[in-house]
Amino acid sequence: MDLGGKVALVTGASSGIGRGIAEALARQGADVAVNYRGDAAGAEETAALIRAAGRRALAVQSDVGAPEEVERLFATLDRAFGRLDILVNNAGVGGGGLIHETSFEDWERVIRTNLHGAFLCAQQAARRLIAQGQGGRIVNISSVHEEACSAGGGAYCASKAGLRNLTRTLALELGEYGVTVNDVAPGMILTPMNRRAQEDPAYLRWAEGQIPLKRAGQPADIGSMVAFLCSEAGAYCTGGTFFVDGGWMLTWPPV
Ligand code: NAD
Fold first, then answer.
1. Residues within 6 Å of ligand 1 by CB
2. Catalytic residue among 36, 156, 177, 236
3. Exposed site from 51, 120, 145, 231, fewest CB < 10 Å?
4. Which domains does the chain have, with CATH numbers?
């Protein structure tokens, strides 16, 4: 899974799964740009882990849901690294509520980051990968909720389902350029987004009881799948959804 000489961008990498992915890519030899929206200290912690692995790191602030900020993000990478090989669209937010009670602002907040953000970054990355002519990798971090819908999670589920078909469409369009595009769908991973699992031991015990492997996942579980897909070992995978969920989806729909 050697990624020596490759340059990667991981969005939303100041915490959680994004940090786990950035670390995993750096351990395989990639230089990594760490995108963050507001948590500069968290982004610097991730950058320090990358440097500790002996690779170059650059923390870049940018809201992935804002077209002009995404343009600025990629222009900064062009100046700093001069190339791009791997994009991981990881930035995401939860929330939503019952559809008939959801305000347009709440709906838009989720779709803007989770879906518009992935589109905007994939577009900038694809243009560069095509121009470089050396192939590349795009990995979208979706969720088991790209398939498993949940009452009260409408905006999130819709954003992740959209990400699944964005992945497939990009895979069709970029295959001829040697660019693979895949979708990694985590189950329950212990990160700041999963605050209830972190803070409520009874809930965590109950939830882990539903998972065939009987444990919640860690960011490193997602990082190793992403590193595989970005390496030569994953060269013939494109357009796929890879569930990394301890077997959770086997229990869906619940009976
Ligand atoms: P997290 O809250 O730790 O990480 C999300 C990151 O995205 C944060 O660093 C946040 O600052 C960043 N972000 C949010 N909006 C942004 C924006 N507009 N621009 C740039 N960055 C932005 O949570 P996490 O669990 O690490 O989530 C990472 C990804 O994994 C998300 O896409 C999430 O939907 C997905 N996911 C998480 C789980 C889980 O159980 N934790 C399960 C399935 C999918």
1. 11-12, 14-18, 35-37, 39, 63-65, 90-93, 113, 117, 141, 143, 186, 188-189, 191-194
2. 156
3. 51
4. 7-242 (3.40.50.720)
Residue with tokens 């090989």: 85
Both tokens of 75, joined, read: 């222009």
Answering whether pTM is above 0.85, one says yes
Q: Which helix (H) or strand (E) holds 85?
A: none
Tokens read off for 107: 């709906």
Are 123 and 173 contacting, i.e. CB atoms less than 8 angstroms apart? no
Query: Mapping DSSP to helix (H, G, I), strand (E, B) and coil, where does residue 174 land?
Result: helix
Closest Cα partner for 194 from 182, 211, 174?
Answer: 211
Per-chain mean pLDDT for the chain = 97
Ligand 1: centre distance to CA 176 (Å): 31
CA–CA distance, 132 with 114 (Å, rounded to integer): 27
Q: Which of 142, 132, 120 is nearest to 35 (CA)?
A: 120
Stretch 207-233: mean pLDDT, rounded?
97
pLDDT of residue 255: 63
Residue 14 CA to ligand 1 center (angstroms) comes to 9
Give yes or no: 203 in active site.
no
Residue type, 8: A
Cα of 92 to ligand 1 centre, how many Å? 4
Average pLDDT of the residues in 26-39: 98
What are the structure tokens assigned to 65, written together? 């849901």
pLDDT of residue 53: 97
